[in-house]
Amino acid sequence: MALFVLASAMTLARAVHTPWQHRSPHVAGAARMLRRSAWACRASASDAKDDGVNSDNVASNVAGFTSGGPIFSNPLPRPTGMRVDEIVDFPTRLRFKIIGVADDTFVADIEQICSLSSGHQVTATSLRDNGKYKSITIDLRIDSAQVFYRVYEDVGKDSRVKFMI
After folding, report:
1. In what order do the strands lie in the sheet with 92-101?
2. For this UniProt entry, which residues form the secretion signal (predicted)?
Protein backbone atom coordinates (compact mmCIF):
# COMPACT_ATOMS: atom_id res chain seq x y z
CA MET A 1 0.00 0.00 0.00
CA ALA A 2 2.75 2.44 0.98
CA LEU A 3 4.64 1.88 -2.26
CA PHE A 4 1.46 2.44 -4.30
CA VAL A 5 0.83 5.77 -2.54
CA LEU A 6 4.44 6.82 -3.01
CA ALA A 7 4.33 5.83 -6.67
CA SER A 8 1.13 7.86 -7.08
CA ALA A 9 2.79 10.90 -5.54
CA MET A 10 5.75 10.53 -7.90
CA THR A 11 3.43 10.14 -10.90
CA LEU A 12 1.56 13.28 -9.87
CA ALA A 13 4.84 15.15 -9.48
CA ARG A 14 5.94 14.09 -12.99
CA ALA A 15 2.55 15.03 -14.47
CA VAL A 16 2.97 18.58 -13.22
CA HIS A 17 6.10 19.05 -15.35
CA THR A 18 5.57 21.08 -18.50
CA PRO A 19 8.06 22.81 -20.82
CA TRP A 20 9.87 25.71 -19.14
CA GLN A 21 8.22 28.39 -21.27
CA HIS A 22 4.76 27.26 -20.07
CA ARG A 23 5.57 26.56 -16.42
CA SER A 24 4.70 29.08 -13.73
CA PRO A 25 6.98 29.32 -10.68
CA HIS A 26 4.12 28.06 -8.48
CA VAL A 27 3.70 24.86 -10.50
CA ALA A 28 7.45 24.24 -10.49
CA GLY A 29 7.57 24.76 -6.73
CA ALA A 30 4.65 22.39 -6.21
CA ALA A 31 6.31 19.71 -8.33
CA ARG A 32 9.57 20.04 -6.36
CA MET A 33 7.69 19.87 -3.08
CA LEU A 34 5.80 16.73 -4.13
CA ARG A 35 8.99 14.99 -5.26
CA ARG A 36 10.77 15.87 -2.01
CA SER A 37 7.79 14.73 0.03
CA ALA A 38 7.61 11.42 -1.79
CA TRP A 39 11.30 10.75 -1.26
CA ALA A 40 11.14 11.84 2.38
CA CYS A 41 8.12 9.63 3.02
CA ARG A 42 9.77 6.71 1.26
CA ALA A 43 12.71 7.14 3.64
CA SER A 44 10.32 7.54 6.57
CA ALA A 45 8.45 4.38 5.62
CA SER A 46 11.66 2.35 5.46
CA ASP A 47 12.87 3.87 8.75
CA ALA A 48 9.48 3.12 10.28
CA LYS A 49 9.78 -0.55 9.37
CA ASP A 50 13.21 -0.63 11.02
CA ASP A 51 11.81 1.03 14.15
CA GLY A 52 8.74 -1.19 14.27
CA VAL A 53 6.35 1.69 13.45
CA ASN A 54 3.29 1.06 11.29
CA SER A 55 4.25 2.25 7.79
CA ASP A 56 0.58 2.51 6.76
CA ASN A 57 0.34 5.63 8.93
CA VAL A 58 3.23 7.18 6.97
CA ALA A 59 1.54 6.20 3.72
CA SER A 60 -1.76 7.75 4.79
CA ASN A 61 0.08 10.97 5.58
CA VAL A 62 1.43 11.04 2.01
CA ALA A 63 -2.04 10.29 0.62
CA GLY A 64 -3.53 13.13 2.64
CA PHE A 65 -0.82 15.51 1.48
CA THR A 66 -1.20 14.75 -2.20
CA SER A 67 -5.00 14.84 -2.10
CA GLY A 68 -5.14 18.21 -0.37
CA GLY A 69 -6.21 16.66 2.93
CA PRO A 70 -4.49 16.96 6.28
CA ILE A 71 -0.81 16.09 6.24
CA PHE A 72 -0.75 14.23 9.53
CA SER A 73 -3.36 11.76 10.67
CA ASN A 74 -2.46 12.37 14.32
CA PRO A 75 -1.99 16.13 14.88
CA LEU A 76 -0.14 17.45 17.89
CA PRO A 77 -2.36 18.13 20.90
CA ARG A 78 -3.36 21.74 21.43
CA PRO A 79 -2.35 23.35 24.69
CA THR A 80 -5.10 23.50 27.27
CA GLY A 81 -5.87 26.45 29.46
CA MET A 82 -6.50 30.08 28.74
CA ARG A 83 -3.50 31.97 27.46
CA VAL A 84 -5.09 35.22 26.31
CA ASP A 85 -4.75 36.70 29.79
CA GLU A 86 -0.96 36.27 29.51
CA ILE A 87 -0.89 38.44 26.39
CA VAL A 88 -3.67 40.99 26.92
CA ASP A 89 -4.18 43.32 29.89
CA PHE A 90 -7.85 43.25 30.80
CA PRO A 91 -10.16 45.20 30.75
CA THR A 92 -9.56 46.35 27.19
CA ARG A 93 -11.32 47.16 23.95
CA LEU A 94 -10.93 44.57 21.22
CA ARG A 95 -11.98 44.54 17.59
CA PHE A 96 -13.68 41.41 16.25
CA LYS A 97 -14.20 40.75 12.55
CA ILE A 98 -17.06 38.39 11.78
CA ILE A 99 -17.87 37.09 8.31
CA GLY A 100 -21.16 35.37 7.67
CA VAL A 101 -23.97 34.67 5.26
CA ALA A 102 -25.77 37.85 4.18
CA ASP A 103 -29.11 38.06 5.93
CA ASP A 104 -31.41 40.94 6.87
CA THR A 105 -31.01 40.31 10.60
CA PHE A 106 -27.37 39.13 10.63
CA VAL A 107 -25.79 42.40 11.81
CA ALA A 108 -28.36 43.08 14.52
CA ASP A 109 -28.20 39.49 15.79
CA ILE A 110 -24.40 39.47 15.97
CA GLU A 111 -24.36 42.82 17.79
CA GLN A 112 -26.90 41.48 20.29
CA ILE A 113 -24.92 38.26 20.84
CA CYS A 114 -21.71 40.23 21.43
CA SER A 115 -23.46 42.60 23.85
CA LEU A 116 -25.03 39.79 25.85
CA SER A 117 -21.80 37.77 25.97
CA SER A 118 -19.60 40.65 27.10
CA GLY A 119 -22.09 42.54 29.25
CA HIS A 120 -21.27 45.80 27.42
CA GLN A 121 -22.76 47.62 24.46
CA VAL A 122 -21.04 47.42 21.08
CA THR A 123 -19.25 50.76 20.69
CA ALA A 124 -18.61 50.78 16.93
CA THR A 125 -19.66 48.67 13.98
CA SER A 126 -18.57 48.78 10.37
CA LEU A 127 -20.16 46.66 7.67
CA ARG A 128 -19.13 45.43 4.24
CA ASP A 129 -21.76 43.78 2.12
CA ASN A 130 -20.34 41.66 -0.70
CA GLY A 131 -23.52 40.04 -1.93
CA LYS A 132 -23.54 36.51 -0.56
CA TYR A 133 -21.53 37.34 2.60
CA LYS A 134 -21.37 40.22 5.07
CA SER A 135 -18.30 41.27 7.01
CA ILE A 136 -18.84 43.03 10.34
CA THR A 137 -16.13 44.70 12.40
CA ILE A 138 -17.18 45.21 16.01
CA ASP A 139 -15.39 47.14 18.77
CA LEU A 140 -16.23 45.67 22.15
CA ARG A 141 -15.08 46.10 25.74
CA ILE A 142 -13.76 42.82 27.16
CA ASP A 143 -13.26 42.48 30.93
CA SER A 144 -11.46 39.12 31.17
CA ALA A 145 -10.18 36.12 29.23
CA GLN A 146 -13.34 34.21 30.16
CA VAL A 147 -15.49 36.92 28.55
CA PHE A 148 -13.21 36.88 25.48
CA TYR A 149 -13.70 33.13 25.03
CA ARG A 150 -17.44 33.41 25.75
CA VAL A 151 -17.85 35.96 22.93
CA TYR A 152 -16.09 33.61 20.49
CA GLU A 153 -18.14 30.64 21.67
CA ASP A 154 -21.50 32.42 21.53
CA VAL A 155 -20.89 34.00 18.12
CA GLY A 156 -19.68 30.63 16.80
CA LYS A 157 -23.03 29.05 17.72
CA ASP A 158 -24.78 31.14 15.06
CA SER A 159 -25.06 28.95 11.95
CA ARG A 160 -24.66 31.94 9.61
CA VAL A 161 -21.15 32.76 10.91
CA LYS A 162 -18.44 31.39 8.63
CA PHE A 163 -15.31 33.02 10.08
CA MET A 164 -14.34 35.14 13.08
CA ILE A 165 -11.08 36.89 13.86
Report:
1. 124-129, 133-142, 92-101, 161-164
2. 1-15
